[in-house]
Amino acid sequence: MSVRFEEIDWQPTPIGEISLRRRRHPVSGDDVYEVKLGDEFLMSSLFTTGETALAELALAKLPDAELDVAVGGLGLGYTAAAALDDPRVRSLTVIDALAEVIDWHRRGLVPLGARLTSDTRCRLVHGDFFAMAADSIGLDPDEPGRRFHAILLDIDHSPRHVLHPRHAALYQPAGLRALAARLHPDGVFALWSNDPPDDQFTSALTVVFAQAAAQIVEFDNPLQGGTSSNTVYLAGNAPDTP
What we know:
- The protein is about 25% helix and about 35% strand.
- The protein is of the alpha/beta class.
- The strands form two sheets. A seven-stranded mixed beta sheet has the order 7-6-5-8-9-11-10. Strands 1-2-3-4 form a four-stranded antiparallel beta sheet, with no helix packed on it.
């Protein structure tokens, strides 16, 4: 049985003070892991349906073949783990700007850390996803120009609510066009958002991709009662992408 509350780690980073906390759920007694940036909650292991759906919905659009997948944003690792659950995935490149978050996984401080770091298909890369997507080298520093079958992005709260102003450019047609160049012709781009579907962003996707849609993912919210929802955007050039 864990203590009621514990701050596992706290580190200053270029984007603010980040902390990893563990608390005991008052009803289930389970450990809940939380990440905060300053006073703002970034993620919680209590709510992972949207992160898992990000991978499952995107990979469901791809053919039955070996897949190379890139994930922007490691966090607590639920999107990465969902991707690895798909036996078609032969390689997974997970990019995170915070070395501290990658270190949590390598040190086994988070529940999925040992699983991700022991899977030979999975590689954790310390880097700025947004800068890498815009750069000619691309998302794999070891293989410039590499393309992926799926790119899954879960870093900002939404296209309008970004963690850093420089991220905003990716959600415009020029930024999306650069990101699309990292995909195979029939590849899929998927984005997690904490906000309701945004028609303006969906329109930006359709400027670059032949198909784009926003899907609402609902989940139980025991803290507020009832259900809450996230949005997963899916975009690609294959006829059946959405």
